[in-house]
């Protein structure tokens, strides 16, 4: 057996397997076809999310993302589903995938940012009572607060209540308190004097006539 034939017999199964893989893997859809398919999948995803079947919804979107690796929409939707389910770690991963395909997508940026903030807040709260990490946790918290101030354009994240607003709040609290009803003592009414019948006058000058 010649060397060339031996090499061909060795490579033939590999080539055949590669051709079969290329034949079974669907080609990415055109933009128009993908938009239509994504709309149909979006309806199915909404139904699955409404039925609390989040794993199936994410699986459907993951298949769309696998078949269309250049498209960001499945990843953005996955990030939103994870975010609403409070799976912030998975939301960050999905948002990163979307931003790798479109670095200007504001929805993905927002989901990643808020998810990161909530993870950071939860982590710092868990480390608050750890004496070994208290120093570094405080530094991280200060750094996070600085970034938030710069992002929001505010020197103070939670501005103090103004004197006028505080006065109005106190007035509302006073008005909201139930007023006690003051019971007045009943006023004594003097009984009306009994009506007396008129005294009969003497008849013809006889003083004893009134006794008759």
SSE topology sketch:
Elements: H1 3-24, H2 31-50, H3 54-67, H4 73-84, H5 88-101, H6 106-127, H7 134-152, H8 163-176
Helix pairs in contact: 2-3, 3-4, 4-5, 4-6, 5-6
What's a concise summary of this model?
The chain is mainly alpha-helical and 212 residues long. It has helices spanning 3-24, 31-50, 54-67, 73-84, 88-101, 106-127, 134-152, 163-176.
How is this structure best described in words?
- With about 210 residues, the chain is an all-alpha fold.
- It is about 65% helix and about 0% strand.
- It is built from eight helices and no strands.
- α4 packs antiparallel against α5.
- The longest helix is centred in the first third of the chain and has 22 residues.
Assign the CATH architecture of the domain at 31-127: Alpha Horseshoe
Strand tally: 0
Structural class: mainly alpha
Distance between the termini: 171 Å
Query: What is the name of the CATH topology of the domain at 31-127?
Result: Serine Threonine Protein Phosphatase 5, Tetratricopeptide repeat
Alpha plus pi helix count = 8
The level 1 CATH classification of the domain at 31-127 is Mainly Alpha
Provide the gyration radius in Å. 44 Å
Share of residues in helices: 55-70%
- Reading the helices and strands in chain order gives HHHHHHHH
Percent range for β-strand residues: under 5%
Question: Mean pLDDT across all residues, rounded?
Answer: 74
Sheet bearing the most strands, described?
none
CATH superfamily of the domain at 31-127: Tetratricopeptide repeat domain
Give the overall shape: elongated
Would you identify the regions where 5 or more consecutive residues have pLDDT less than 50?
A: 5-12
């Amino acid at each position: 057996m010649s060397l060339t034939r031996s090499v061909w017999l060795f490579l033939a199964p590999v080539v055949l397997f590669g051709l079969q893989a290329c034949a079974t893997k669907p080609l990415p859809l055109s933009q128009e076809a993908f938009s239509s398919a994504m709309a149909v999948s979006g309806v199915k995803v909404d139904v699955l999310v409404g039925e609390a079947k989040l794993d199936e919804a994410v699986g459907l979107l993951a298949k769309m993302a696998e078949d269309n690796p250049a498209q960001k929409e499945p990843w953005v939707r996955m990030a939103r589903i994870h975010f609403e389910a409070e799976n912030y770690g998975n939301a960050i991963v999905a948002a990163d995938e979307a931003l790798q395909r479109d670095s200007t997508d504001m929805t993905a940026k927002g989901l990643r940012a808020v998810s990161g903030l909530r993870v950071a807040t939860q982590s710092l709260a868990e480390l608050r009572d750890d004496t070994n990490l208290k120093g570094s946790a405080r530094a991280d918290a200060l750094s996070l607060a600085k970034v938030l101030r710069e992002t929001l354009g505010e020197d103070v994240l939670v501005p103090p209540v103004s004197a006028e607003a505080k006065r109005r709040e106190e007035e509302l609290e006073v008005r909201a308190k139930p007023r006690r009803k003051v019971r007045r003592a009943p006023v004594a009414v003097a009984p009306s004097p009994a009506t007396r019948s008129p005294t009969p006058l003497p008849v013809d000058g006889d003083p004893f006539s009134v006794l008759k």
